[in-house]
Amino acid sequence: EDEDENLKPQIGVVRGLAWTSVGGDTLSIEVNVMPGKGKMELTGCMGDVMKESAQIGLSYVRSIAEAYGIDSDYFEKHDIHLHIPEGAVPKDGPSAGITMALAILSAITEIPVRGDIAMTGEITLRGKVLPIGGLKEKLLAAKIVGVKEVLVPARNKRNVAELDEEIISGLKITYVEEMNEVIKCALKKESK
Amino acid sequence: EDEDENLKPQIGVVRGLAWTSVGGDTLSIEVNVMPGKGKMELTGCMGDVMKESAQIGLSYVRSIAEAYGIDSDYFEKHDIHLHIPEGAVPKDGPSAGITMALAILSAITEIPVRGDIAMTGEITLRGKVLPIGGLKEKLLAAKIVGVKEVLVPARNKRNVAELDEEIISGLKITYVEEMNEVIKCALKKESK
Amino acid sequence: EDEDENLKPQIGVVRGLAWTSVGGDTLSIEVNVMPGKGKMELTGCMGDVMKESAQIGLSYVRSIAEAYGIDSDYFEKHDIHLHIPEGAVPKDGPSAGITMALAILSAITEIPVRGDIAMTGEITLRGKVLPIGGLKEKLLAAKIVGVKEVLVPARNKRNVAELDEEIISGLKITYVEEMNEVIKCALKKESK
Amino acid sequence: EDEDENLKPQIGVVRGLAWTSVGGDTLSIEVNVMPGKGKMELTGCMGDVMKESAQIGLSYVRSIAEAYGIDSDYFEKHDIHLHIPEGAVPKDGPSAGITMALAILSAITEIPVRGDIAMTGEITLRGKVLPIGGLKEKLLAAKIVGVKEVLVPARNKRNVAELDEEIISGLKITYVEEMNEVIKCALKKESK
Amino acid sequence: EDEDENLKPQIGVVRGLAWTSVGGDTLSIEVNVMPGKGKMELTGCMGDVMKESAQIGLSYVRSIAEAYGIDSDYFEKHDIHLHIPEGAVPKDGPSAGITMALAILSAITEIPVRGDIAMTGEITLRGKVLPIGGLKEKLLAAKIVGVKEVLVPARNKRNVAELDEEIISGLKITYVEEMNEVIKCALKKESK
Amino acid sequence: EDEDENLKPQIGVVRGLAWTSVGGDTLSIEVNVMPGKGKMELTGCMGDVMKESAQIGLSYVRSIAEAYGIDSDYFEKHDIHLHIPEGAVPKDGPSAGITMALAILSAITEIPVRGDIAMTGEITLRGKVLPIGGLKEKLLAAKIVGVKEVLVPARNKRNVAELDEEIISGLKITYVEEMNEVIKCALKKESK
Ligand SMILES: [Ca+2]
Ligand SMILES: [Ca+2]
Ligand SMILES: [Ca+2]
Ligand SMILES: [Ca+2]
Ligand SMILES: [Ca+2]
Ligand SMILES: [Ca+2]
Ligand SMILES: [Ca+2]
Ligand SMILES: [Ca+2]
Ligand SMILES: [Ca+2]
Ligand SMILES: [Ca+2]
Ligand SMILES: [Ca+2]
Ligand SMILES: [Ca+2]
Predict the structure, then answer these.
(1) For the whole prediction, is pTM greater than 0.90?
(2) Cα–Cα distances in angstroms (integers) from residue C114 to residues B60, D126, F149, in the given order
(3) How far is E52 from chain D (nearest CA, A)?
(4) Rounded to whole angstroms, how far apart are CA atoms A63 and A128?
C-alpha cells in the first residue's frame, strides 16, 4: 500500500511496523498539532496499551522539548491528534512507542522524518527502548514497501541473529537503546 | 428518499454512500456550526470507528483552515454538530471519512457543496484517501437518487473495473487520492 | 390523562405522540431554561437515540435562534432541562424530534405553543422532517385526549391514506416537510 | 425509627414514603446547601430514575426560586447535597419527586417544613403531581410514625377510595395536583 | 496490627471498626488536606456505599465548619484525600460514616483525635447516627488493640444488652445519637 | 534486564520489586513532571489498587513537600506522569506504594535516588509502611540485578527470618516503619 512517494521525508508522519495474525505490516503514524487547550486525541481503533504508549511518548517529548526551542506552555496551548490508519483495524501493544514519540516530536518541531526508514520498539518515560515481538514478520513487511533502514531495539539483537540472512539482506538494521538514538537517526538534520 | 431539490448545492450538507446488510444507501451528512466552546457533537447512532472518523475529518479541516481564511481560534470559539440521519439506524465504519470532512469544511467556510455529487472514502489525518468496500452497492444507490458524479478512492479502481458496464453507465466516476482533490471537485467555486 | 386545561397554550410544553407495546400514548414534553453555563439536562428514562434527538433539536434551534432575537451567547449562559414524564417509563426512538425542538424554541422565546395540537416526526439538523412509525396508534391517542390537529411527516402520507376514515375523522392532519412549517403551525402568533 | 422529635419542623428535611418488597416505610430526605460551584450531589444508594427525579425537583425549584427572593446566580454559587438514609438500602422510582423538591426548596430558603406531615408523588418539570403506587403500604407506614397529614396525588383518589376505612382513620389525606399546593401545605408560613 | 503508639492522639486519623467475613477488625481512617481545587480523593478499595458515606461525612463537616473558624471558601481551595488501609482489602457499607466525618473535621481544624477510642455508626447529612451491624465482632476487635472507649449508635443499645458481659468488660461503651456527641467525645479539647 | 548503568543514581526513577505468577521481578518506576494543570497520568497497565497506591503516594508527597522547598501551588501548576514498564504486562497491588512515593518525591525535588537499592512496601496516607507478600521471590529478583540493599517493611521481619540464609547473603536488608526512613535511606544526600 505504500508507494514511492511514501519514501520521501514528511513532517509528523513516521512508518511503524506491526505484527498481526496475518503477518507483518507497515503502519503510518500521523500526528497533527493545532492551536488548542492541551488535549490529546487518539484515533485508529487503538487498544488501551497502545493508548498508554502514546501518552508515554507524549510525556517523553514534553521532557525534551525545551532542547528543541519549544516554549514551556506549548503543550497547554495546542491540541495533538495522533492517528494510525486504517481506522477499522484494531491495533494494540506497546511496540509503536518510539514511532509515536518520533511522530509527535516531528510534528511539534516541524522537522521532517526520513521516509526511507521504519522502526519498532517500546518506549519508557525516560526514553529507553525496550524489546518487541514479531521481528521477522515486521522486517519482511519493511522490505516489501522498500525502506532502506529499520530501527530495532538493541535487546532484540539475538532475535535478528536467529533469522535467515536473506530476510535482512538489503536492509540496514540499526540497533537502538535510547530514544535519542532514534531521533538522531530518523529526524532529518536540516531544520525547517 | 432524495428529491430533486436535494440535488441543489447546500452549505454543510454532503451526500455519502453506505453499504448495509440490505444493499447500498445514500447518507446525508449534516453539519451545523454554532458559537460555543470547541465541543464536537456527533449524533446519528454512530459506532466508535465512525466517531473516530469524524474526529479525523475535523483535525484535517483544522490543519487546512487557515488557507480558507478561518481564524486560528475559530475552533475554540465554536461548537460543531455533525449528524447523519436516520437517527435510529446504527452506522459504523471509516468510509464516510471524506464526506464528513467536506461537510465540516463547507459548514465553517459557508461555501456550498455540489448537490449532484456523492462520495465515499476513508480519510487519514494528512488527507490521504484510503479504499473502501461495497462499491457496487454504493454506486447503485447513487444512481437511484440521480447524482451525476461519484468520488471514489483511487485504490478502488480495480473494483470499478470488475463491475458490469451498465452499473456505472450514466455516472461520472472520479478517482481521488487526496482530500484536496475531493475539495476541488465538490466544493462550489463561487465563495458566498 | 390529559384534562381540558391541558388544551390551553403553554410555554415550553408540547404534546408528542408515542407508540408503545400497549398502543399509542401522548407525551408531554417539558422544557425549562435557567441561567447557567450551557448544560443540557435530559430526564424521563430516555434511551440513547432519543437523547441524540434532543441534541439535534437543540442544535437546530441554536441555528435559527438569531431570527427570534436570541443573543448569540444565550446558550452558553443558560442551562436547558428537557423532561418527558412519566419518569419511570423507558422511552426511545427519534420520533419526538420535532416535538422536542419546538418545546426548546418555545421555552427560550417564551412564545406559547398551541395546546390543542399534537405532533410526531424525526428532525434532522437542517430541520427536515423524516417519517415515523406507529401512526395509527398515535392518531388514536391524540383523539382520546381531544386535540384538534396533528402534525404528521409528509412522507407518512401514504400511511394515513391506508387508515380507516373513522380513525382520522374529527382530526385535522397537517403534513409537514420542514421544521419551519411545524413552528408556523404550532407556535402561537402573538409574542409575549 | 422516627421519634417524637422527628415530628418537629426542620429545614431541609422532609418525610417521604417508600414502598418496598417488605411493605411501606418512611424516608427522611435531607438536603444541605453549601457555598460551591453548582454541583448536585446525590447519595443514598439511589437508582437512575430516582436520581433523575432529584434533577427534575431541582430544576422546578430553580424555575420558582426568584419568587422566594433567591438570587439568579444562587445555584451556580452553591453546591446541593441530597441524601436519603439508610445509605445501604437501594432506592429507586419517581415517587419521591415532590418530597425531594420540597426539601431542596426548604434548604435554600431556610423555611422549615412541617414535621407532622408525609408525602408521596412524582413531580414534572412544571410542577404537576403524577400518581404513584403502593399507596396502602405507604399510608400504613405514615401512621406508624405518627404523622397527622399525608399529601397524595389527586390522581390517586380512586386508590384511596378502595382502602379500608381503618387504614386512613386518624390520617388527614390531602390531594395535590400541583407542586405549589404541596408547598402551601407543608412549608411553614413564618419565614426565617 | 496496632501498636501502643497508635493510642496517642493524631490529627486526621481516626480508628474505625469493621465487620468482615473473618471477624471484626480495626480500620485506621486517614485524611490529608492540601491546597487545591475542591477535589475529594477516596482510596482504599471502597465500594459505592462507603464512598457515598464519605461524601455525606464531608457535607456534614462543611455544614458545621463555620463554627470551627473555617473560611467559607476553604473547601473550594483545598483537596481532601481520605484513605483506609489496607489498600488491597475491599471495604464497603455505611458504618464508617461517623469515623470518616470525624477524620475530615480533625484534618481541616488540625485538632487531634483521641487515640484510645474507636467508633462505628452510619451518619446522615444532618449528623444523626444510625445503627450498624456486627457489633460483637467490632467490640472484640476494639479490645484487642487496647482502646478504652467505643462510641456506639444509641439505636444499637439492645444489641449491646444481648452480649456476654466479658465481651465488654474493660471497655467503656458510649452511646451516641448525633454527630456532635461524637465530636465532643473524641476530638481533643485543646485547640492547636 | 537491568544493566550496570542501572545501578547509578537517577532522578525520578526508583527500583521496585514485583511478585508475579512466574516469580519475582524488578520494576523500574519512572516519574516525569511537566509544567501543566495538576493532572496525574498513570501508565503501565496498572490495576485499580495500584492506581490508588500512586494517588496515596502523591498525597503523601504533597503533605511533606513544603519541607523540601516546594511551593504550595507546585502541584496545581505541574502534571505528573508515573509509568511502570513494561507497558503490556498487567500490574496490580499496593506493594509498590513506597517506591512510587519516592519516585514522585525525587522527580519534583530533582534529588537523585540511589541506583543500588530496591524496595517494597505499601504506604499509607500518613507515610506508615505496611507489610507485603512474596518477599522471598522479590529478594531473589533484587540479587539478580545486583542491588546492594533492599528496604523491607518492618512488619515483614518474621518473613525474612524464615528464609534460607543464602537467599539474603550479600544483600543488606533494611527494615522501614515509616516513609521518612525510606527517604533518608534511598534519596541521595547531595541536593542538585
Ligand atoms: Ca495495511
Ligand atoms: Ca547506551
Ligand atoms: Ca435511507
Ligand atoms: Ca497524488
Ligand atoms: Ca401515559
Ligand atoms: Ca418543502
Ligand atoms: Ca427504614
Ligand atoms: Ca388544579
Ligand atoms: Ca487489618
Ligand atoms: Ca438526642
Ligand atoms: Ca521484567
Ligand atoms: Ca517508628
Answers:
(1) yes
(2) 46, 17, 82
(3) 6
(4) 13
